[in-house]
Write a structure and sequence with these properties.
The complex is a heterotrimer of chains A (450), B (309) and C (706). With 450 residues, chain A is an alpha/beta fold. Chain A has helices spanning 5-11, 25-33, 47-56, 104-115, 140-154, 164-174, 188-198, 208-221, 236-251, 273-282, 295-308, 341-354, 370-375, 381-390, 393-396, 412-419, 433-438; strands at 63-66, 73-76, 93-99, 118-121, 124-127, 130-134, 158-161, 180-182, 202-205, 227-230, 263-265, 287-290, 321-325, 334-338, 358-363, 401-404, 422-425. Chain A is built from 17 helices and 17 strands. Chain C has a six-stranded parallel sheet with strand order 3-2-1-4-5-6, with helices on both faces. Chain C has a four-stranded mixed sheet with strand order 10-7-13-12. The chains are: A alpha/beta (450), B alpha/beta (309), C alpha/beta (706).
């Protein structure tokens, strides 16, 4: 049972020294309780506090960091089985493979294509996280050179996949970058001996949960701390059930023996890699290796990941402001709604569907939907009037007519009173916007009288 | 093995629902399981069923679909026949979008006529969807219920129209798709209300509203998981098969836009957009998926079968 | 005396039986025993036989056992039970008799339709399930005044009832030019015995829509009695035959209204003058509620107009708002005392005014309903505000005796009158409170002396209500109400709303919860029986905990309603304000949603706190609440109540000020409010502590919280 903020507070020095970066010990305690701060941020903490809180805040699924700096990738460190119970913290990482057998231009081209797998959505950059360098050449020197070139070209952390002599050849130059080592099945012990002294993360590959339990124990005995497990599924159903069972063992059964992040190699001829990747994004895969560099494959997968790893209690927000939809002009209608991303995108696509160009005015409502924002007092006559005067919309259109979501029709009078704009009450559901907009008389948006 | 057994058992069982076929077709049963999806545990008498949607009316087809539908006919009965046969869809979802005033404004009688023709042309089980315009649908459902010469499911009954849809279903022996707006309590209430009216539980499917990939899919994902967990835990009113209609995935700009070159080929991308939505719904617990792309029907059917039963 | 009546029913049944026997032997003689016996266009053979017995009748020979069964049901002793059974026997015999005729192609002359086929039943049945056909009126016999019969049928058609006619009344109604047929949901069946087609229609509704099978007599009778909201209007003198049929109707649970002097049998047979009176009596006897599709007022009406303001310059007529004396009141009365749809305007109306004029207003709404409770009056009364604002050109402000209504020039130009105000209230009260309100009458007074007199009475009611609200305590009630509306985003959150602790969103109190449950029994407000008391101070009950466990799907084991430190209630996300522990001050601070600053003595502003407190988890030391809860006697009862509040935003101080001061007075700390700090005094725990010490705040000397 996790400790409450209050229980944590009782263990803290209660001096409000602010060394942790929070204004009070209580505020700090709340952050620890939420898993967003650790006791190590509190220099004056007592040994008792360190011991109790260290254990209590250790996640059931340990965290493994691959790479360094800004682009470091965090695997694992999750606390629930279902996102609605709290949230999933660390998105499934995607690694795209590159073979060291490719010759110069083909290799560079491949890296360039991997690097361009980057997309903007909802104010976030969605990109591939890692490059997986495969040793197909069998030549350690060639592998080391390819890995260095991949690092140089892609700038992401690396997964190094190959026999231990190849890995060893790459490590002198790449070791400080914390690559994830992935030796073949038969070379687990040698891989552990490579990883342990450098403190590098290691993928342990073994068939099934039984196999993993033994292999992980061996790696731990060899001194490897940061472990990732590849259960080597034979098929898609196998991959999903192994992934689910490993996560259940970690979260429900606290089976420390096998509680490590997972990695799945969906390349190298794995059947239906797209389906497997989709299912493993939803069902607990920590790292997925794919061979495809087709944006038509990767963009949907990254979007799915963005969806699943959104905090269910913190909706994604879009930036407040004016969004022209279609070729909006000074006499196009002005439609207002809140900055909850789903609301925004729904309304925008319904305006698009109407083929009537319009200005979509987005109000900052902490990412709440229209009714919630209204109920919370964030979408009110006052706040809307303020947006009308401060957003610059008055300069963008020559009329003074606002279309208000039908759900908050009750605000219309207040808005008219405070802003001087005329309010038309739109439909209650966004889906009715296309027909509503098409039936609006153009006269409604004639220039305002001076 | 020294670690615990990770398999889970649940006290509840999802109601088994059968979508009947016409003469020469194969009926489809879903539900009946005692376990979460995609896992080798519990009982799972039926695999998830994959259907295909045909829409009437004047709508621009997404590039990916217009590519897939090319040369397969425009008449709904012909197109349905071709697509069902080619994709191996287990059921047909016929959306009478054309009756919507903005999408063709077909007369109700024409909508009903299309239902009659399509059901004759295609023997597989069918779900018939309204046009989404409240007043039209109020006329359309009774007409469709009468025109359908064999039992189908009517989609959908919501908080406002459930009495009418239930009445139409009862009058002619059809089933009902009970829709709720991503809300577990409303999903439950819808089932209770339909039960009060007299719709037998084995003729009801839950439609929790399926957001498309990138546009609210995560809400659907979690609500489906919650409905399924509640049903398996013993909440009988939620222990019903769940239908996810993937139509919204085709409204995403990312599935339609051919101008963005860095997004890859729109024909492949559109199809993938729907496919990713489908897998997420399956992983959450959906028992029926309604796709538009025939290749996705084929792919999904090929993979949801035997090993996951 | 009912005995002769029963005897007459039984005689009538014997006569129908004899007639059926004769016709059957006649048919067998002509067509042989294997000759078919069936209605055209039904899957249910002889429907009354199909529905009430397990006999399969498809041939002439097959009808014999059915008639024998009927004979066995006719017993001579004139008791109520025997009369009803004779009635059932009459229906069986009549259905066979009619089927004999139809099987041989004997039909009734136009406009009579005889048997109504399944195809029509299915179509109309949908609307019966839907509620747009809210009931069935069966009119039989012969009206002494044909115009009265015609007007009754017209009234039934207007409400949307399905109408069956049998007997001479068919000709009378036809002659009056009233449209009949499927499109008008009015079926002239034939001569009196053809009335059995109304019964076999109802039986088939049970078979088709009620999921019933052959011979399920008990559930069928119960379906007919409860789901098919039918009643019979018997016009003209009643002979044995009509009484036998009437008894059959009563057996099926259809009340019979006769315009003759018949002995009354409560709920089954009543005497009633024909015409409007009988229409009303029939509709009310079955509790039929017509669906009001469009509110019949000359202005547009709907939620889109809710926010509309009417400026002074655009106002034609005004009521209250300081210019005139005005009040509004909703009261409940027994069903028998309220005439639905009765709207009276007493005094001058809008046309009697010049533009910009004002009138006194006494708006009195009387409601009745089998499930209406006195406690709901205030809930309904608050709804007047929204209802009036729904009109395009009508504006409503405030409530009770401060009410203020404006009617725009445009509305008046379109013909809006005060009666329309009543029509709007009537329609919306019925539809919004469908489950608790059956009848609504509205009286609008505009004469000063009437309004003043009414106001005095209304003020008594307000005072009684307020007194009642004060006696509504957690200890005085047996159950609380839940609200699970927020589970869409806080999956395991359950709000428990008690008389002394309103919902944390501030929008729902115990009465709202109670009314919410009555209005939508499957909705988010459910009764929560308190069950055994476990701790009266902390506010812990077995029943509450069991409910919370179940509805949080076993994630929250239960909570203490009056404690913030130990197993407090969970918070969803809609809370009006957050209570947060300030350990340095041995008390709690309150920050409201509107407070944008991040600086508070606990080191967290509203939004940071909301992120940690919300989502349906228990967070001891922190809790989201409704503002009014601060004024409750049960506020933080476990921790010592209001004196624990050490800091509060200035805005909340201003909002709650007077009420808070009053409450502080009640607990003997009249100057408490001054001792509570705000953001202008302290935003750090150190500074707060200093202030509290200087001010001598009671929290400092209370039991340590941590």
């Amino acid at each position: 049972m996790a400790l409450t903020a209050l229980e944590i507070y009782k263990l803290l020095p209660k001096t409000n020294c602010k060394e942790c970066g929070f204004p009070t010990c209580l505020a700090f305690a709340m952050q620890i309780a939420a898993g967003k701060a650790g006791i190590d941020q509190c220099p004056p903490a007592s040994d008792e506090a360190r011991e109790t809180l260290g254990a209590a805040s250790a996640p059931p699924l340990p965290k493994v960091v691959v790479g360094t700096g800004e682009r470091a990738v965090i695997l694992g460190d999750e606390v629930v089985l279902y996102r609605h119970e709290k949230t999933f913290y660390h998105p499934t990482a995607f690694a795209i493979s590159v073979s060291d057998a490719l010759d110069g231009d083909a290799f560079r081209d491949r890296i360039r294509r991997i690097r361009s797998l980057s997309f903007e959505r909802m104010g976030e950059r969605l990109a591939v996280d890692m490059v997986a360098v495969r040793c197909d050449s069998g030549d350690p020197a060639r592998f080391a050179a390819a890995a260095a070139a991949a690092k140089e070209g892609a700038g992401t952390p690396l997964l190094l996949s190959g026999p231990c002599d190849a890995l060893a050849a790459a490590l002198p130059s790449l070791g400080p970058d914390r690559p994830l080592l992935c030796p073949p099945v038969g070379e687990g012990d040698a891989g552990a001996r490579l990883a342990a002294p450098l403190g590098l993360p290691l993928v342990v590959r073994a068939k099934g949960i039984d196999g993993l339990e033994k292999a992980l124990a061996a790696a731990r005995a060899a001194g490897v701390r940061d472990l990732v497990a590849d259960p080597m599924p034979a098929s898609l159903p196998d991959a999903v059930s192994l992934s689910v069972y490993l996560r259940r063992l970690a979260i429900l059964h606290r089976a420390r023996e096998v509680a490590v992040p997972t990695a799945f190699d969906l390349g190298n001829g794995f059947p239906s890699p797209f389906a497997a990747a989709s299912l493993l994004v939803t069902k607990y895969g920590s790292l997925l290796v794919l061979d495809s560099d087709d944006p038509a494959d990767i963009f949907p997968l990254l979007t799915l990941r963005q969806n699943i790893f959104t905090d269910p209690q913190k909706p994604i927000q879009v930036e407040a402001g004016i969004y022209p939809v279609g070729k909006a002009t000074a006499s196009s209608p002005v439609v207002i709604t809140t900055n909850f991303s789903l609301t925004f995108f729904t309304v925008r696509s319904d305006i698009e569907a109407s083929r009537v160009p319009a200005h979509l005015l987005i109000a900052d409502c902490d990412g709440m939907s229209v009714l919630t924002a209204w109920a919370a007092g964030r979408f009110t006559g006052e706040s809307i009037a303020k947006i009308l005067s401060e957003s610059g919309i008055a300069g963008a259109v020559s009329h003074r007519t606002l279309i208000l979501p039908g759900m908050v029709a009750r605000l219309s009078g207040k808005i008219e009173e405070l802003s001087g704009w005329r309010v038309l009450v739109g439909p209650q559901e966004s889906s009715a916007l296309p027909s509503y907009l098409r039936r609006l008389p153009p006269a409604a948006f004639a220039p305002a009288d001076a | 093995m020294t670690v615990a057994n990770p398999q889970q058992t649940f006290p509840g069982r999802i109601m088994e629902v059968t979508l009947p076929a016409g003469e020469g077709g194969r009926s489809v049963s879903v539900g009946g399981q005692t376990a979460l999806p995609l896992l080798p545990e519990g009982e799972r008498p039926n695999a998830a069923a994959i259907g295909i949607e045909i829409r009437t009316g004047d709508e621009d087809l997404p590039p990916s679909l217009s590519h897939a539908f090319g040369g397969k006919g425009t008449d709904p009965a012909v197109l349905a026949g071709n697509l069902v046969e080619e994709s191996g869809a287990q059921f047909l979802f016929l959306s009478l979008a054309g009756c919507h005033p903005d999408l063709g404004g077909h007369a109700v009688s024409r909508g009903a006529g299309i239902v009659r023709d399509v059901l004759q042309a295609v023997p597989c089980p069918a779900i018939v969807g309204g046009c989404g315009e409240e007043e039209t649908d109020a006329l359309l459902f009774p007409a469709v219920a009468e025109a359908a010469q064999r039992p189908v499911f009517l989609s959908y009954a919501d908080e406002k129209n459930y009495r009418l849809v239930a009445g139409a279903a009862l009058a002619y022996g059809h089933g009902v798709v009970a829709w709720s707006p991503i809300d577990i309590n409303m999903a439950k209430q819808a089932n209770l209300l339909l039960g009060d009216i007299g719709v037998p539980p084995h003729r009801v499917l839950i439609d929790p509203l399926t957001g498309g990939l990138g546009y609210g899919l995560e809400y659907t994902y979690s609500i489906v998981e919650r409905i399924r967990l509640a049903g398996l835990s013993g909440d009988a009113a939620l222990a019903r098969p769940i239908l996810c209609h993937l139509g919204d995935s085709w409204k995403a700009r990312e599935a339609l836009d051919s101008a963005e070159e860095s997004w890859g080929d729109v024909i492949a991308r559109g199809r993938r957009w729907e496919e990713a939505t489908a897998w997420a719904c399956l992983a959450a617990g959906a028992d029926l998926l309604v796709c538009r792309h025939p290749d996705n029907v084929r792919t999904l059917r090929g993979m949801v079968g035997a090993p996951w039963r | 005396m009912t005995e002769p009546l029963f005897a007459s029913c039984i005689r009538g049944a014997r006569a129908v039986l004899a007639l059926a026997r004769d016709s059957l032997s006649d048919a067998i003689a002509r067509r042989g025993p294997e000759g078919s016996l069936a209605y055209p266009g039904t899957a249910y053979e002889i429907p009354v036989v199909f529905g009430l017995t397990d006999l399969e009748v498809t041939t002439l020979r097959g009808a014999e056992p059915a008639l024998s069964l009927a004979e066995g049901m006719i017993r001579d002793r004139p008791t109520a039970e025997n009369a009803l059974d004779a009635g059932a026997a009459t229906l069986l015999c009549a259905d066979i008799l009619e089927a004999l005729g139809h099987a041989e192609g004997r039909t009734y002359p136009a406009p009579c339709v005889g048997f109504v086929p399944d195809s029509v039943l299915r179509k109309l049945g949908i609307f019966m399930v839907d509620g747009s056909v809210p009931g069935v009126a069966v009119v039989v016999g012969r009206a002494s005044d044909p115009a009265v019969a015609a007007s009754m049928v017209r009234d039934f058609q207007e409400v949307g009832l399905l109408v069956f006619l049998a007997g001479d009344v068919v000709g009378q109604v036809e002659a009056s030019g009233i449209k009949m047929g499927e499109d008008f949901r009015t079926f002239p069946l034939g001569p009196l015995p053809a009335v059995v087609h109304a019964v076999n229609f109802a039986v088939r509704a049970g078979l088709t829509f009620g999921g019933l099978g052959r011979g399920q007599a008990e559930p069928m009778l119960s379906y007919l009695a409860t789901r098919v909201k039918a009643f019979v209007c018997a016009l003209g003198p009643l002979d044995d035959l009509s009484l036998a049929i009437a008894a059959g109707a009563m057996k099926a649970g259809f009340p019979v209204l006769s315009d003759q002097a018949v002995p009354a049998i409560p709920g089954a047979l009543l005497s009633c003058p024909p015409g409007e009176e009988m229409v009303r009596a029939g509709i009310e006897a079955r509790g039929i509620k017509a669906k009001i599709v469009k509110v019949p007022v000359p202005i547009a009406f709907g939620p889109s107009y809710e926010g509309e303001r009417i400026r002074k310059a655009d106002t034609y007529a005004e009521f209250g708002g300081g210019r005139t004396v005005a009040y509004e009141l909703v009261t409940s009365a027994p069903l028998s005392e309220v005439r639905d749809r009765e709207i009276r305007v007493v005094g001058p109306d809008i046309p009697d005014l010049e533009k910009g004029g004002a009138l006194p207003l006494g708006l009195v709404v009387t409601v009745a309903g089998a499930r209406m409770q006195k406690d709901f009056e205030s809930v309904l009364e608050r709804r007047i505000h929204r209802i009036v604002n729904f009109g395009e050109g009508t504006m409503h402000v405030a409530q009770r005796d401060t009410t203020w209504i404006r009617i725009s020039d445009e509305a008046v130009a379109r013909g809006f009158r005060l009666a329309d105000l009543g029509t709007m209230i009537h329609a919306k009260m019925l539809s919004d409170f469908e489950n608790i309100v059956d009848r609504v009458a509205v009286t609008i007074h505009t004469r000063e002396e009437d309004v003043r007199a009414g106001l005095a009475g209304a003020r008594t009611v307000y005072a009684e209500r307020d007194a009642r609200a004060r006696t509504l305590t957690d200890d005085a009630v047996g159950e609380f109400y839940s609200c699970t509306l927020c589970q869409s985003f806080a999956p395991n959150h359950v709000c428990i709303v008690t008389p002394e602790r309103l919902g944390l969103c501030g929008a729902i109190n115990w009465l709202d919860g109670k009314a919410g449950y009555e209005i939508t029994p499957t909705g988010p407000n459910q009764p929560v029986p308190k069950g055994d008391e476990r701790d009266p101070v902390k506010g812990a009950w077995e029943g509450v905990n069991a409910f919370v466990r179940e509805h949080s799907r076993n994630t929250v084991p239960g909570f203490n309603l009056y404690s913030i430190m130990e197993a407090p209630m969970t918070s969803c996300g809609c809370f009006e304000c957050i209570l947060a522990l300030v350990p340095e001050a041995n008390g709690f601070m309150v920050v409201n949603r509107e407070y944008a600053g991040a600086e508070t003595p606990c080191g967290m502003g509203f939004s940071t706190l909301a992120g940690s407190v919300g989502g349906g988890v228990q967070t001891p030391g922190f809790m989201g609440v409704g503002k009014q809860y601060l004024l409750s006697r049960k506020f933080l009862a476990a921790e010592g109540g209001l004196p624990r509040i050490v800091w509060m935003t200035k805005e909340m101080k201003e909002q709650l000020g007077p009420a808070l001061a009053k409450r502080a007075g009640e607990i003997g700390m009249p100057d408490l409010l001054d001792k509570i700090a705000d953001e202008t005094i302290a935003v750090t725990p150190e500074r707060l502590r200093e202030y509290l010490e200087k001010a001598g705040h009671p929290a400092l000397s209370m039991k340590p919280l941590v």
